[in-house]
Amino acid sequence: MYTIDYLEKEHDLIINLTNNIEKNSLKILNGEDVDVEFFRNVIIFIRKFADGEHHKKEEDILFKYMILELGDLANKLITNGMLVEHDMARFYVRELEKYLDEYEKEKTQRNKLFIINYAMSYAELLRRHVDKENNVVYTFANRALSDEIKKTIEAEMKERVKEEEALEEEKNDLIKKLNI
């Protein structure tokens, strides 16, 4: 299914981002200063692409149809699982940004600690989240959705991907900056 293949490809990019978040967090633990520019670019990438594009495609397209078509089990899986985790990720990013701002004002160990905490909380959440989506949610959708609904999802997904092409250059620039 095109939609799932596309979303899984985006997951690969997100996992690469989490690996670089971990590498940069370890540098801080090893005594280096916080690479504020790196973490600012992480936040931009997450907000515009990991959340702004990827999560929105899931929420607006795939998850919407799963809830509509697959009943209570899908509703619980999506609403109480995946959407809660999307919100948790947004919280971690807000807190990371807050402590980056604080660090720029005052380069304390406490601010470094919270930068590492929220950066790694995001990274670990997304690693587990991606695994659940790839191995449970997407598998369930692919198996349980009717061919007719899959065609509808595919059409909406292709339209959304086409709309996102306008931001492709910015996305590629961030990918290079973040080495993902």
Brief rundown of the structure:
By secondary structure, the protein is mainly α. The protein has helices at residues 2-29, 36-105, 109-144, 147-164, 168-178.
Q: What would you say this structure looks like, in words?
A:
Keywords: Coiled coil. It comes from Peptoniphilus stercorisuis. This is Hemerythrin-like domain-containing protein. InterPro entries: Hemerythrin-like. The chain is an all-alpha fold and 180 residues long. The chain has one domain: Four Helix Bundle (Hemerythrin (Met), subunit A) (Up-down Bundle). Helix 1 runs antiparallel to helix 3, helix 2 crosses helix 3 and helix 2 crosses helix 4.
Count of DSSP helices?
A: 5
Task: Find the structural class using helix and strand composition.
Answer: mainly alpha
CATH class category: Mainly Alpha
User: Radius of gyration from the CA trace?
Assistant: 18 Å
Shape designation = elongated
- Percent helix, as a range, is over 70%
Largest sheet: none
CATH architecture: Up-down Bundle
Approximately how much beta-strand content do the residues carry? under 5%
Order of helices and strands: HHHHH
* Beginning-to-end CA distance, first to last residue: 25 Å
The named CATH superfamily:
nmb1532 protein domain like
Chain-averaged pLDDT: 97
CATH topology: Four Helix Bundle (Hemerythrin (Met), subunit A)
Total domain count: 1
Spans of at least 5 consecutive residues with low confidence: none
Number of strands: 0
Properties at a glance:
Four Helix Bundle (Hemerythrin (Met), subunit A); elongated; mainly alpha; 180 residues
